[in-house]
Structures are given as C-alpha cells and as structure tokens.
Amino acid sequence: MLSLTFLGTGAATPTIDRNVAGLVLQREGETILFDCGEGSQRQMMRYGVGFSFAEIFFSHYHADHLLGVTGLLRTLGLQGRTAPVTLYGPRGAQRVLGAAVSLGIERNKFPIEIREIRAGDRLRREEYDIVVFETDHRADTVGYALTEHTRLGRFHPEHARELGVPEGPLWGRLHRGETIILEDGRTIRPEDLVGAPRRGRTVVYSGDTRPCLTLVEAAREADLLVHEATFGGDELERAQETGHSTAAEAARVAQEAGVRRLVLTHISPRYSRDAPELLAEARAIFPDTVIARDGLTVEVPFSE
Ligand SMILES: [Zn+2]
Ligand SMILES: [Zn+2]
Questions:
Q1: Which residues lie at CB < 5 A from ion ligand 2?
Q2: Disulfide: which of 135, 166, 192, 282 matches 251 by Cβ 3.0-4.6 Å?
Q3: Distance (Å, whole) CA 256 – CA 249
Q4: How many angstroms does the Cα of residue 63 sit away from the middle of ligand 1?
C-alpha cells in the first residue's frame, strides 16, 4: 500500500475550501508528513490520519508550510508521546524549526531532532530512499522524491519443484539472485526460476517552485507527481515574480518527466473550489491530471 492524503491544498492563506500546505504519505503502515501548514493537525484528525508519524520533511520555511508544526508537536506531548520525531528541512533548519519547536512555555516531552538536508542528499531506508532535490522558489527550497527499491523478481515454486530444488533455504538464496549447486552436482541459476526484478514506485513532491530541470530529473518516469500550480496562465507574470508555477507549466513538467499521473496543489485563493480553468489548462498538455482538494487520498499502485 502506498497513498497520499492532502491535508491542505491552498496557497499562502487558508480559505473555507482549502487549508494551507500539508501532505501525508502512507506506505506499508508507515506515515510521513511533508510540510505542516497552520491547522494541519486538525486536518489529520478530520481525514483519519493517525499521529503515528515519526518524521516531517519541510520543503521550505514560508509560513504556509510551517506554522502547524508547533501546535502539532504540543498535541503529541499532551497525548503522552514518548517516541522521537525528526524534522528535516533545507538550510536554516536549526534556526527556523528550532524556533517553531521551542515557541511557548511548554517543555517538549519527547525527543525532537532537527536535521538540515540539502539538494542531492539521499536518505536510505530499508525499502525506499528519500531523494532531496533543488527547486526554484526565491528561497532555500527543496523538493522530495520517495523511490522504492527494486523488488525481487517473482519466484516460481513450480519450476523449482520441476528442477528438483528442495524447498527451504535454497529457494530463498535463488530468489535473492544466488546461483546454487545441488547435491547431485547440477547448477541452478536464479534466472531458471525467478522472474525479472520489479520496479518500485516513485512519488515526487515539488513544494513551491517555478518549473525546473532538477524537478524534471527527479520526477523521471515517476508514478505520481504532486506539483504546485498556484496560478493559471493569465497570471504567468505573477507566477514568475513570486516563484510559483502555472497549471500549464506544471503539466509541461509532468510531460517532460514522463510521469504516470499529475496532481496539482497549492492553489491560489483566487480560484474556486474546483478550479476548472486550471484543470483545463493542465489537461490540454497532460491529460492524466487532477486538482487536489483537502482530504483527497490518491493511491499509487504498482505499474505492472
Ligand atoms: Zn506556499
Ligand atoms: Zn513558498
């Protein structure tokens, strides 16, 4: 299971329809947050996202991506949390996140670690990596790609039996790619009974940015790209001035990167709840586009 839930999909200020930035990734029972705008904790309650996360990744420190973290951590403290939380962010992490974490007079009751990351970092996990890439937003900003490791090919037990490989540890060794020699002297190669390795899934989050090459590279053939689309084409100049993207620009990034699906978020308060004009602009370039709304959950299936 791999899914994304949008806690907030608006730009800069909350509106009745859209809260500010917050994105939840859930994968095999693990929950990870990306950005944490004001009110994110209430959105988590509303949309049934548990508080079991251990990490928040910040794209940058504009208030609409940040202000929710103080209250969220306080609530965890009141709930008696003891497990640590790690906050990741680009340059300035210690100063900005440190201030957010220590604001007020409460004492944190559980360990909070702050880690500064930079573009090019790759955080290696058991089953996936989180890749940090540079974005272009008139500040120290990054985007994140979660890339699952390639999975072992499918093991065919019926072939193993036909070949007379006894069930047990030898099956595991073959599955992991080892060539084995049976007691009768025959050599069995993994390709005799294991299919081709299967590609893991990739999900990419742009944060706030102008269209940029580093993002296209990071999103190459991704299963899902979440890209900001603050404005429509009639506001291109404003998008350029403020370091944001139009819906059409986001769609072009998706097209160039060859992603499977595009979800647009970070929508300016000037657009209506469904923002049909943004959707039309994007779909004219990249048909498999949706506009996120608060509470939307998107499943990311394997491509095979
Ligand atoms: Zn923003
Ligand atoms: Zn911003």
A1: 62, 208
A2: 282
A3: 11
A4: 8
Position 107 confidence tier, pLDDT thresholds 50, 70, 90: confident
CA dihedral 95, 100, 102, 105 (to 10 degrees): 140
CA 24/CA 168 separation, integer angstroms: 40
Sign of CA dihedral 189, 199, 59, 28: negative
234 given a catalytic annotation: no
210 alpha carbon – ligand 1 mean position (Å): 12
Rounded mean pLDDT, 122-148: 96
Average pLDDT across the chain, whole number: 96
Distances (CA, A) of 171 to 127, 163, 164, 189, 214: 21, 12, 11, 11, 42
Asked if 39 contacts 60 with a C-beta cutoff of 8 angstroms, the reply is: no
What is the mean pLDDT of the segment spanning 172-191? 93
